[in-house]
What we know:
4-stranded mixed beta sheet; about 15% strand
Amino acid sequence: MNININYEDPSFQHDEYEKVIDRVCEEAALVYGLGPNAEISILLCHNDYIHQLNKQYRNIDRPTDVLSFALNEGEDDGYDGPDTALLGDIIISLEKVQEQADEYGHSFERELAYLTIHGMLHILGYDHMEPDDKAEMRKEEEFILQRLGYVREGEEL
């Protein structure tokens, strides 16, 4: 899998962020059979930047933690298999990562891993609008996070 990580602000560039994102995306590629030609782009940004995108694309006038833009959005089948090259874009607010890590009492790395897999699952067609869909998506998120050792404080592997 090809993982392109970009930064709205060059000062955000950090090897540890990239390691977390790479691990999560590679694990998702393995678990969901994405293949070596699959490509995802990830942008790490400020709250102001993701706020603008959230307002423009979702008509929600506030910052959010993660946005996903699947290139095959609206198609019934979701991911088309290993021959598909471009999956889509994930935008993550690093300010929200820190806020939510503090709020939920876990590490920055765990929250970044969570938002990365959350965004990846949206790219792959998962949603959380209905309670059953939300439960399924949460199960998939936790499955990937536990495989990588990103557990919440007090949780066992």
